[in-house]
């Protein structure tokens, strides 16, 4: 057995049994409240562990985890809430660290981690509200091969920190900036330096405008997944730049109230690989957008058009043409009559 997941109220004795699995590589013990340091030490008998998840194991301490980590030569992934210097000293081959919603994580903690972990490829600090640009600077200086950064709801990071990331982390492929206080200038740094970017999440980044979108589309041609939900300042002019992203497969535009069906036509024409599109609450999107999707987006599988100004005619045409379409969400289409729905379906 290579992988074992525990999400039950198991005890230390349960780990005693697992300790006999010599080839165990991955173990997840999320929320196991009856496991403590003594139980963790029973896993030291094996030496094949590569990944360990002790998130919400409240009786496991940093010292106990450090002892286990010291006995394992191949540890590459840790998901925990413990003193970060432990991992920096003991896990120099670490490639992934998950610290999501660890409220006590500070800039100093991140710095002590990354100074010895230059091989890190994935860093998740989602909702680590104390982090500032100093943490991003430490990551940029020490982890230049990082490919995935999860920075959701880190309110104190801004263009200064992202400038360092954009300048030094040229291998970056994924970055989540959900609910961060970023602006167009930040996107300029990312667009100018992160040409390998394939996934970008800007959910609720309300300061982003068309200018930022232009800079991003100009420099990041490989983007496949883009989330712009609630970036309410973006208009049709901003969407025009998106039409140059030929590899785009997933696009979320929910609540972009300033875009119209005409510009959806540009997206449909310029992004032939589109698989999933969210247009919920894009109140000015009409049949023109649906007709364009029908003609040019033959790979489309999921579509959300709730609260759009589409009619039964446009809906029927769309559903009749797109053979790959698997899931359509169409709540509160006030311009579509009961008869229109019946004809479309």
TrEMBL record:
SMART domains with a match to the protein in the record: LRR_CC
Domain (F-box/LRR-repeat protein 15-like leucin rich repeat): residue spans on this chain: 86-311
Lineage top rank: taxon: Eukaryota
SUPFAM superfamilies, alphabetized: RNI-like
Alphabetical GO biological process terms: SCF-dependent proteasomal ubiquitin-dependent protein catabolic process
Taxonomic classification: Eukaryota, Viridiplantae, Streptophyta, Embryophyta, Tracheophyta
Organism: Panicum miliaceum
GO cellular component: SCF ubiquitin ligase complex
Name assigned to this protein: F-box/LRR-repeat protein 3-like
């Amino acid at each position: 057995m290579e992988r074992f997941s525990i999400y039950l109220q198991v005890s230390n004795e349960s780990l005693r049994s697992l300790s006999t699995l010599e080839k165990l590589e991955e173990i997840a013990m999320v929320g196991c409240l009856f496991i403590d340091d003594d139980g963790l030490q029973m896993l030291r008998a094996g030496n094949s562990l590569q990944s360990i998840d002790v998130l919400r194991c409240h009786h496991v301490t940093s010292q106990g985890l450090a002892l286990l980590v010291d006995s394992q030569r191949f540890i590459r992934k840790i998901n925990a809430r413990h003193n970060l210097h432990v991992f920096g000293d003991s896990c120099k081959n670490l490639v992934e660290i998950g610290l999501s919603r660890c409220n006590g994580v500070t800039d100093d903690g991140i710095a002590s981690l990354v100074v010895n972990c230059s091989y890190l490829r994935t860093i998740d600090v989602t909702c680590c509200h104390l982090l500032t640009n100093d943490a991003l600077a430490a990551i940029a200086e020490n982890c230049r091969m990082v490919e995935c950064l999860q920075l959701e709801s880190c309110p104190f990071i801004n263009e200064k920190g992202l400038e360092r990331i954009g300048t030094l982390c040229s291998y970056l492929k994924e970055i989540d900036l959900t609910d961060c206080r970023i602006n167009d200038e930040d996107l300029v740094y990312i667009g100018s330096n992160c040409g390998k970017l394939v996934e970008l999440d800007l959910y609720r980044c309300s300061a982003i405008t068309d200018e930022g979108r232009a800079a991003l589309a100009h420099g990041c041609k490989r983007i496949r997944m883009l989330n712009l939900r609630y970036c309410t300042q973006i208009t049709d002019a901003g969407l025009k730049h998106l039409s140059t992203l030929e590899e785009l497969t997933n696009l979320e535009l929910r609540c972009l109230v300033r875009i119209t069906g005409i510009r959806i036509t540009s997206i449909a024409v310029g992004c032939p690989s589109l698989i999933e599109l969210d247009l919920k609450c894009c109140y000015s999107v009409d049949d023109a957008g649906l007709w364009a999707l029908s003609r040019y987006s033959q790979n489309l599988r999921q579509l959300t058009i709730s609260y759009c100004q589409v009619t039964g005619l446009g809906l029927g045409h769309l559903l009749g043409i797109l053979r790959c379409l698997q899931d359509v969400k169409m709540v509160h289409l006030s311009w579509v009559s009961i008869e229109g729905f019946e004809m479309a379906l």
